[in-house]
From TrEMBL, chains A, B:
This is Transcriptional regulator, GntR family. Pfam families: FCD, GntR. Keywords: DNA-binding, Transcription, Transcription regulation. InterPro entries: GntR_C (IPR011711), TF_FadR/GntR_C (IPR008920), Tscrpt_reg_HTH_GntR (IPR000524), WH-like_DNA-bd_sf (IPR036388), WH_DNA-bd_sf (IPR036390). It comes from Marivita hallyeonensis. GO terms for molecular function: DNA binding; DNA-binding transcription factor activity. Residues 8-78 form the HTH gntR-type domain. It comes from the Bacteria.
Length: 240, 240
DNA sequence: ACCGCATGATTGTCAGACAATTAAATGTCT
DNA sequence: AGACATTTAATTGTCTGACAATCATGCGGT
């Protein structure tokens, strides 16, 4: 795979060494790393270099640091929330930097979201259904700002994927849905388009209520088509 | 959203400020940030603090640094590869640290993978099909180590998701498949289980060749069931 | 025109210092 | 003895100043 990384900086090498120790279990969650001074000694570098290495790991939420006596760097417990936040940052930037067309992103997002329909139909709970109905009601308010409408849209889809009752699936899907938000925010929602979306959301909620996976699938596909249409019209308008 | 982060360290604050500038476009790909000395002046901190902030951003692949005259920190172009590598690191740790059951992880992974079947059936290319057939042939070699078998398995599924012809979808799916590898490595493949997997892989390739999305779906579901069975037997064996 | 070399800008690393924070140990009062 | 205040020691956060390594540029010599 990767051979000799010719000349990566010392701080990178140290960060890689510690990361490897965490990933393959030589350091467990909650373990305390040696103090910065000790690490500096062990690796034969200055404290500043060790600190840069630790900051790299902290940026990936692999470790957390506490100050004071008996403080130090601890292997962090990566929660679903933290992991999702990082995934969203990465995915958002990926979409923004690679000139991904709205259509391709949308296609991916809805293809992914449809992967929860079968499980959701089988396992749906009243809690997520209630959330979905609540968000639909909110989306029907004409005074809602575009931003709030988008946020409610995300909450609605989040509830849908949570209905599948699989945390790992929720993590992946919620991440991909949220990462799309900057692109979705390009769309200014007219009252007519909002009504159309609310209609489709209602269809999704009703189908989920009835445990009809195929109908959820169909409604999501319709939503995908409509969203792409909206995106195209925005692009055309912007061209002028 | 988040208001006053009471007492986050200066390096975190500076990293957040720069990250925000990148995410919402005030800094574009390829732009050069001010030198460390200038940033230190601007923010009224020492160079060491600025450096720690930059290392945090570098760890997320948001920037890259070059040495020498006219070097400095540049806003990085986040490639699909880099993004996927980060996603895999995060997801792998998430699975490892949260005592996710093999069954739940498997269920999520195959649910996600099935989201590419419709598009893959519609757009499949000879290139990906060839890759899949090649990997199947490799997997039929009885002398293959468990590790190599797993690697080939990943390559096979990677080719399947690439068949959908949507880079964004490939990024998400390949990431979730790869993140499962440490869990998959727990399974020691007997010759009989390898044969069963090769059979199902062949069915997937044949169905993709025939553009039969439903059949791919069914084969993936069968593979999911078989994998979970294997996982269970490993757990039982380990209990003794 | 070509080669080599100095030069300046910039990051990478180091050493040492001090401030801030925090848990534990110690002391003090009731 | 127990509650409360103080000291202490360990540790991270930050600063300062320095030097080494790297590299585009331009200058000078041939």
């Amino acid at each position: 795979m990767k051979t000799a990384k010719q000349t990566s900086s010392l701080s990178v090498q140290i960060a890689d060494a510690i990361r490897a120790a965490i990933v393959d279990g030589r350091l467990l969650v909650g373990d305390r790393l040696p103090s910065e001074a000790e690490l500096a000694d062990q690796h034969g570098v200055s404290r500043a270099t060790v600190r840069e290495a630790l900051k790299r790991l902290a940026a990936q939420s692999l470790i957390r640091t506490e100050r004071g006596a008996f403080g130090g760097a601890f292997v962090n417990h990566l929660s679903y929330e933290e992991a999702r936040a990082q995934q969203v940052t990465t995915s958002t930037l990926l979409l923004g930097m690679n000139a991904v067309s709205f259509q391709v992103a949308c296609e991916a997002r809805y293809a992914l979201e449809r992967s929860c329909t079968a499980l959701a139909a089988a396992r749906r709970s009243d809690a997520t259904l209630t959330t979905m109905r609540t968000e639909i009601a909110r989306q029907s308010d004409p005074d809602l700002t575009d931003e709030a409408f988008c946020a409610s849209d995300v909450a609605f889809h989040r509830a849908l994927v949570d209905s599948a009752g699989n945390e790992v699936l929720s993590y992946h899907l919620a991440g991909s849905v949220e990462a799309m938000q900057p692109l979705m925010n390009m769309i200014t929602f007219t009252q007519r388009s909002r009504a159309e979306i609310v209609t489709l959301h209602t269809k999704i909620a009703d189908s989920l209520d009835a445990r009809d996976a195929a109908a959820i699938d169909a409604a999501l596909t319709a939503l995908e088509g409509y969203t792409i249409t909206l995106g195209k019209s925005v692009l055309e308008q912007r061209a002028r």
